[in-house]
Design goal:
The complex is a heterodimer of chains A (96) and B (111).
Chain A (H helix, E strand, L loop, with lengths): L1 H21 L3 H25 L5 H25 L16
Chain B lengths: L1 H28 L3 H27 L3 H30 L19
The chains are: A mainly alpha (96), B mainly alpha (111).
Chain lengths: 96, 111
């Protein structure tokens, strides 16, 4: 039963990797990375269930945290042209 | 009783896999970034919740279920937040959805 879940998640991850490769704009790639991360969290959880090892879920929880922080860090950089804690960039019209 | 729980968790896992694949296919097939936002959130929300529910049913009332619920709650909150952040960053830096006046209206003055 979990094997079918693993296969489904694996196919979704492959498709997401293809979108990551093809994605025209940067934000398609960030979207694909975020979705790939969430699918990986589920993948680790299901693999943990498949191999009867409950400690995988700690790894999955940690991965979910890191995935979110990574996505927000990338976006923060490209939105504010910097990590946002420097003095405001010189072209303010971009900041509407 | 346990047979019923097994069947239910089996159905949840299958449903979760179905929605995850539908989300991934949608992310590939949709024309532009703004419609892909919807496709990604399908697999992020429905697929994820069904998977977590399926695993929770399989684990019963143990510590494992508590961890799963924590993961589910966290992903449930951060999924839409991340998608919103992507959309906000894209909109601010100038990525505009193709709205009506890009496509020539059939009727003059069309909406």
């Amino acid at each position: 039963m979990f094997l079918i879940g693993v296969i489904a998640l694996f196919i979704a991850m492959i498709l997401m990797l293809y979108r990551l490769y093809v994605g025209p704009t940067l934000y398609d790639r960030v979207l694909a990375t975020n979705s790939f991360g969430t699918t990986t969290v589920l993948f680790i959880g299901v693999i943990g269930f498949l191999t009867e090892r409950p400690d995988f879920l700690d790894i999955a929880l940690l991965y979910a945290l890191i995935n979110f922080v990574g996505t927000i860090a990338i976006l923060k950089f490209f939105r504010y042209r910097a990590m946002g804690d420097y003095p405001q960039p010189e072209h303010p019209e971009d900041m509407q | 009783m346990s047979l019923f729980v097994d069947i239910l968790s089996w159905a949840c896992i299958l449903g979760g896999g179905f929605f995850t694949i539908i989300g991934a296919v949608g992310t590939l097939r949709f024309p532009d970034f703004w419609s892909r936002l919807h496709a990604v959130s399908v697999s992020d929300s429905a697929g994820m919740l069904l998977f977590i529910l399926g695993m929770c049913l399989q684990a019963g009332l143990t510590l494992v279920t508590l961890k799963l619920v924590l993961i589910g709650i966290f992903l449930f909150i951060t999924g839409p937040t991340a998608t919103h952040a992507v959309a906000n960053a894209a909109l601010v830096t100038g990525l505009r959805p193709p709205i009506a006046n890009d496509i020539e209206p059939e009727v003059e003055g069309g909406a």
